[in-house]
Amino acid sequence: MNDKDNYQEYRQDLEIFLSEVDELLANTEENLVELEKAPSDAALIQEVFRAMHTIKGGAATLGLQDGVEVTHLMESILDEVRSQGRELTAEMVDVLFAVLDYLREWRNALGGDKERPSPEKILAKIREFAGNESSVAHSVSQQGTSSAVPRDGSRTVDLDGDGKRIYLLTVRFKSDAPLLSVRAFQVLTLVGEVSEVLSSAPSLDDIENDRVSDVLRIYLTAEDDGKEAARTARGVQDVAEVSLERYDQRVSRDNPAASGSVAGGAGNEAGFSRDESASQGYTVKKTTLGKTVRVDVALLDFLMDMVGELVIDRTRLTQIATRLQRSGETSAVGNEIRALAAHLQRTSAELQEGIMRARLLPLKNIFTKFPRMIRDLAQRCGKQVEFEMAGEDTELDRTVLEVIDDPLIHILRNAIDHGIETPDERVARGKPPKGRIRLLAWHEENQVLVRVEDDGAGIDPEKIKKAAVKKGLLTEEEVRKLSEKEAIELIFMPGFSTTEKATEVSGRGVGMDVVRTNLERINGHVEVRSQVGLGTEVTLRLPLTLAIMRALLVKCEDLTYAIPTSSVEEVLAIKDGDIRTIQGKPAMSVRGRIFPLISLAGALRDDKWKRGSSERYALLTRTNDEPLALGVDDLLGEEEVVVKEMGRLLSRLKGIAGATILAQGDPAVILDVQRLI
Amino acid sequence: MPAREATPGRETVIEKEKQIVAFSLGSETYGVDIAQVREIIPIQKIVPVPRAPDFVEGIINLRGRVIPVLDLRHHFGFEKKKQDPDQRIVLTEVDGESIGVIVDSVSSVLRIPEASIEPPASVITGDDIEYIQGIAKVGSNLIVLLDLTKIISDAEKRTLKEVDLASAVVR
């Protein structure tokens, strides 16, 4: 593809490709872990093969030769296993995993516009295994031969003796579908797997060279009259309509001329007298549009901000109504506005809840990587682990998902590193050599529970106590008074870790204390239960939804404040020349609009015109509905913060909306800019 | 605060006792009925809250909850002190809400016979101060017994007044 000139378009295509690659790699990872357990599972091999194939197609379209080569070789190996009965050895699975890791690195480099990793090493590794020269010998330019699709569209239709019927499968893509050639490639190869493709227009070569339109015609024969082919095509993304019809009655062995014309492929089919309405084919409208749509997170955030605005307006409306009600003449108007405000409140509350629900994502999003992780860790620790997951469809707010990702990794690592014993130890204790780790998730009342359980050694309260004394966290005396349960709780103390030396697996500086802090930030909770010799159970209790606000974190006199993003129009760097004075007061002129410049430090000290000395940024905002430039020392970025109450004592402060807990665990005040001054 | 019954199992004790947490503020020793103390935690990062009343030192993160912390030194008119590691935050609960109080150091939990507690003399404490429950003599030391709940509700009442006034001026 030569359209790198058109960088914007290239980037756009790339983004779509990358998100697809993410999905494919995640699936492949899962499949590989399964495949390791059942190396002869043809369906799994097929899935992995297909994923590689799709990535190859996309990479080819975007001109990413390295990606094409790697996926192609991987395909070759899989093809040997799939169609030539080569045995899938554990070493081969390892290579497949290595390929996966390479692709992931490759994908991240692409996404970050960085230099891509060299494929040489991984290619050499694959070649070692692709012993059967025949398939490796395929040069990349001959890619695609593994599927039963003629490349040039001009293969002679060779009707076999019993005169199989030819069907025309017309696939119409959505006119705005991006990466049309990738989709066409996908349809063609998938259809090739369930039927015999005689020719197509555009041809496979055309497709690979990006000569595509939104209609793809495939001429095929199949045992089931092409029904499976139509079904398969319909399942491909961005396919708008699929129709299947008997191509032409005349195409039979009695009419070899017709078959020759079919072979003519693209453009030539007009030569056939083909009455569509009279044809015996049937048309299948694509009805499975699905009940879900993909929404950009940014859009959701925007909607949430807007709801926030509504809530603020509602509050102000109520205030106005109160003022009106007080004065006699306008009290009727006041009543009316008040009723309106009440209605607005109900609507905005429901809207808010709806949006919060739209933010829910299934746990699958973070669970998928765990099987592979467990496999690798277990291997490295010389342990045998059977890993089970359940409840991965349980949904949680995406912020909650983000926050529990690292803690779960940590807990699972602990389970392998400290929990599960080595096979010898286990046998000695009368347990099966293979340990078991389960990751479960389910709803319980208004919470979601996520639990990691293992059947390992358990946590020994005595060891914990000793470690706590040794680390100087508690005295002998204090430790002696602790119950078993309290002793186990000690693992949540900052600076606690029982391993003597930090291993590669755990001990990376994050401890259970970080797990606890992370969870508490989102109003969650973590509990540990353990029995020596029997195992450990770590349970996370998580809220279904949260009072979340997008906020800009700013620094002012060494303190961090959160300012709702919805109330900031723009952020500017303050340059000395930008500041003027109007009647002696500082102001900034931005594109012809005047914004009085007030320092946040001054405003908070109710000395609003006092300029701070180190202000580098101005937030354009509004206070009491007047434009305002608010000077702050530094910007620390935008974040989703969980709004927390500060208690009655601090609940009614002007310009203070509440507090939140920042990533590193410190509290921070959330400002209400509208009422700041 | 009404005299608390001794803990069950201690009925055999003839003399009625009060368990108090003793702490120091400046050179003085104060005590709080142990029933009012939820938890005592080491001093930690306290983030000031703009526009909060003077006696509120700021907020802390207590296991994911944001909790206001008061400075008792300020409350009693002692001069402010720089944070030092001996300081502790005594957590109490008022109407279901946790509130912390900074003290200089916590010395011990004491059992004081109720008989040794004398009512506060109004000369020292002033008439309107309800939060002093009494003064206990322990050896040669005097311990001023405080009612944390009253201190806080006192403070709260004052705050609400201040805030109302402030918003009245603004609007």
UniProtKB/TrEMBL annotation, chain A:
It catalyses: ATP + protein L-histidine = ADP + protein N-phospho-L-histidine. GO terms for molecular function: ATP binding; phosphorelay sensor kinase activity. GO terms for cellular component: cytoplasm. It is found in: Cytoplasm. GO terms for biological process: chemotaxis. Residues 134-148 have a biased composition (Polar residues). The modification Phosphohistidine is found at residue 53. Residues 7-38 form a coiled coil. Residues 548-677 form the CheW-like domain. Residues 134-156, 250-276 are annotated as: Disordered. Residues 288-546 form the Histidine kinase domain. Gene3D superfamilies: Histidine kinase CheA-like, homodimeric domain, Histidine kinase CheA-like, P2 response regulator-binding domain, Histidine kinase-like ATPase, C-terminal domain, HPT domain, SH3 Domains. It comes from the Bacteria. Residues 6-110 form the HPt domain. Keywords: ATP-binding, Chemotaxis, Coiled coil, Cytoplasm, Kinase, Nucleotide-binding, Phosphoprotein, Transferase, Two-component regulatory system. Its EC number is 2.7.13.3. It holds the Pfam family H-kinase_dim. Involved in the transmission of sensory signals from the chemoreceptors to the flagellar motors. CheA is autophosphorylated; it can transfer its phosphate group to either CheB or CheY. This is Chemotaxis protein CheA. It comes from Candidatus Fermentithermobacillus carboniphilus.
UniProtKB/TrEMBL annotation, chain B:
InterPro entries: CheW (IPR039315), CheW-like_dom_sf (IPR036061), CheW-lke_dom (IPR002545). It holds the Pfam family CheW. Residues 17-157 form the CheW-like domain. CDD domains: CheW (cd00732). One of its GO terms (biological process) is chemotaxis. One of its GO terms (cellular component) is cytosol. This is Purine-binding chemotaxis protein CheW. It comes from Candidatus Fermentithermobacillus carboniphilus.
